[in-house]
Amino acid sequence: MKRENVEKLKELLSTDEALGIICFSKHHSGRINCTRLSELLKTPINKLKDVCVKLEELKAVKIHKLGQDHELELLDKDDEELKKIFDEVLWLNKQEYGRIYKKLITAELLDFMGDNK
User: Fold this and answer.
1) I need a surface site. Which of 23, 36, 49, 74 has the fewest CB within 10 A?
2) Strand ranges for the chain from DSSP E
3) How many Å apart are CA 22 and CA 3, to the nearest integer?
């Protein structure tokens, strides 16, 4: 990956939306549904989709379109350089990542509790 693309990717991965994508993918298997993630993060879907498109341009994710919705697949599983970039960004943004992780876990717990009433 070119140096300028690595810097662009690191900058993009440091956004709340991208950190949310990484966080969600680390704690769930399979593809990430953008609508679901948008609801959990309380982030506008269009903002999340814009970040996804930019991440796909930098070859960090693969977008699978399902009608109006998108599902994401992170491409770090088979790419050691990409995996290192993700880990570095998480380390540099560990407080923000922790806040997002707490937000996701809380939202999922509330959803789960709401379904069992």
Assistant:
1) 36
2) 32-33, 61-66, 69-74
3) 21
The residue among 71, 21, 63 whose CA lies nearest residue 41 is 21
Over residues 53-106, the pLDDT tens digits come to 999 999 999 999 988 899 999 998 889 999 999 999 999 999 999 999 999 999
Residue 116 lies in a domain: no
Domain that holds residue 87: 3-108
Cα angle 19-21-26, degrees, rounded to a multiple of 5 = 95
Closest among 28, 25, 34 to 67, alpha carbons compared? 34
Angle separating helix axes 34-41 and 94-115, nearest 10 degrees: 100
Mutual orientation of helices 16-27 and 34-41 as an angle, nearest 10°? Answer: 110
State the CATH number of the domain containing residue 43: 1.10.10.10
